[in-house]
Amino acid sequence: MAKFTIKLGDITKEKVDAIVNAANTTLLGGGGVDGAIHRVAGPALDVACARLHGCPTGEARITPGFELPAHYVIHTPGPIWQGGNHNEAILLANSYRNSLELAIKNGCQTIAFPSISTGVYAYPLEEAAKVAVKTIKTVLEQYPQLEVTMVCFDLQTYQAYLGAVKRK
Ligand code: AR6
């Protein structure tokens, strides 16, 4: 049976096959979790990302994890919240689903996600958690070997994802 866990923590410390990065469409790094991942992975990640020449919102790209404990980093730009009528929910679901599918294609079984789009990109937390949990659970039904963890950086985020799991 697939495992789905919500935890509080720092995703750069996760010893998993792949961590997901809440990136931007340039893939050239930024603040938030993206900045933290690039700092710990080291400059080789910047070089690998530059070679990818960006990524459209909702799609995903893979690189090695370099100095991170995770083997791979999967980079996905989530949607910027623009009020909710700009395909935000579909694009956010695409980010989760495409990241999982790319991880599976690369033989990953253990995958950790941050809360995509709920920081700088201002996606309302409760709504984002609902989309994330629903999308991850749907993929997990087809892939019983997977172990997916949501790594929440603060208590409010942790509680929102726990709530979304309970309500499902
Ligand atoms: N581990 C886990 N989660 C973290 C960590 C960490 N080390 N650090 C921050 N978070 P954000 P976005 C949480 O803003 O909204 C970047 O500049 C954070 O508390 O990182 O998708 C990119 O380059 C929040 O809950 O990502 C883009 O330009 C969550 O990660 C833009 O920000 C996401 O917040 C993407 O914005």
UniProtKB/TrEMBL annotation:
Q: Which InterPro entries match?
A: Macro_dom, Macro_dom-like
Family annotation (PROSITE patterns): MACRO
Which residues are in the Macro domain? 1-168
CDD domains in UniProt: Macro_OAADPr_deacetylase
Top-level division of the source organism's lineage:
Bacteria
Give the SUPFAM superfamilies listed for this entry. Macro domain-like (SSF52949)
Q: Which NCBIfam families match?
A: PRK00431.1-6
Q: What is this protein called?
A: O-acetyl-ADP-ribose deacetylase
Species this chain originates from: Limosilactobacillus alvi
